[in-house]
Recover the amino acids of this structure.
């Protein structure tokens, strides 16, 4: 990183699975897993982000890997602070003391106490002024919607810990629903399915790889196959099994139906004029979870409305948070 574009404003998409950092006038400079490796004996932080991810599920008893965010909110205050500090240090060393403004996005359904925890973590990590923005609002701004207009836009942001559903109009959220099902819960469903149906114990990382490579919400043509390594629960011996995309779909379908039902619930509560806007403009899908094959068409068939997958779903929230950081004055009404 050169020092010519030195900037003291940072935007953070602090996610359950990944954290993205955006620097003013530079854009997104970092995207790493939200995980920290700690030495249990000394309490010292050993690794952060990708370095800690590589240790995850491969540690011995003195090293623990911790995800400080659960369901989109901070579950471990101290580790969250270490994560923010460590990731900012990766971008530029010796820089923490000069952060003037920090914009952090949070799930729309979180409590005041949970908001306070985010604010405190950001302040302890070196930010002088901390602004919070709701995830669906950041996603809407990130995909280029004009949130100030008196027009209803429906956003469904499927992150690692939560799925955020919101109808946005006039710089505010008219209707919202936040359910604690996201990418991590889908991985979990795959782990449970294999335990139950194949007596095979697989790790979270294997489950995530299967979801990304062969997972789908609807039938594929042709169906895919993947080799999976796990531990046979009967013999206790590591085994390799060939698994089809149909089985992964079966593992995921219950969780996907919960997301579709939550979208329908949100639509039922939407006032008629805003509902008419959503009918005309369609539902926008963002977030890493939205990239599951066929998810957009499954939701389309359930809600009978147009459903669009945004151009860059993984980065929509971070881009929106960054856009707000670049124009703090213009976006005062969407910040808290």
């Amino acid at each position: 990183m050169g020092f010519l574009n030195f900037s003291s404003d940072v935007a953070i998409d602090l996610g359950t699975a990944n954290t993205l950092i955006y620097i003013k006038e530079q854009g997104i400079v970092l995207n790493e897993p939200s995980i920290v490796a700690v030495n249990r004996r000394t309490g010292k932080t050993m690794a952060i982000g990708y370095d800690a991810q590589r240790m995850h599920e491969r540690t011995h008893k003195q090293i623990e890997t911790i995800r400080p965010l659960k369901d989109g909110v901070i579950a471990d205050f101290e580790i969250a602070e270490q994560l923010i500090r460590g990731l900012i240090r990766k971008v530029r060393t010796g820089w923490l003391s000069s952060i003037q403004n920090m914009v952090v996005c949070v799930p729309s359904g979180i409590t005041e106490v949970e908001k306070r925890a985010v604010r405190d973590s950001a302040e302890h990590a070196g930010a002088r002024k901390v602004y919070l923005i709701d995830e669906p609002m950041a996603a809407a701004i990130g995909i280029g919607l004009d949130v100030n207009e008196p027009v209803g836009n429906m956003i469904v942001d499927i992150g690692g810990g939560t799925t955020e559903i919101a109808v946005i109009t006039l710089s505010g959220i008219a209707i919202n629903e936040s359910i604690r099902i996201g990418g991590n819960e889908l991985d979990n469903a795959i782990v449970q399915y294999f335990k139950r149906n194949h007596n095979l114990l697989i790790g979270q990382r294997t489950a995530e790889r299967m979801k990304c490579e062969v997972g789908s919400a609807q039938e594929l043509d042709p169906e895919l196959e993947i080799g999976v390594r796990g531990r046979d629960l009967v013999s206790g011996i590591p085994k390799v099994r060939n698994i089809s995309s149909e089985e992964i779909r079966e593992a995921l379908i219950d969780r996907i139906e919960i997301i579709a039902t939550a979208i329908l619930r949100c639509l039922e509560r939407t006032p008629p004029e805003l509902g008419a806007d959503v009918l005309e403009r369609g539902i926008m899908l963002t977030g890493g979870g939205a990239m599951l094959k066929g998810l957009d068409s499954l939701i389309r068939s359930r809600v009978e409305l147009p459903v669009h997958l945004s151009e860059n779903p993984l980065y929509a929230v971070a881009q929106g948070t960054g856009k707000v950081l670049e124009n703090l004055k213009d976006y005062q009404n969407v910040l808290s």
In short: The chain has three domains: 9-137+317-334, 145-181+256-311, 183-251. The first helix runs from residue 50 to 55. The first strand starts at residue 9 and ends at 14. The CA atoms of residues 25 and 257 lie 40 Å apart.
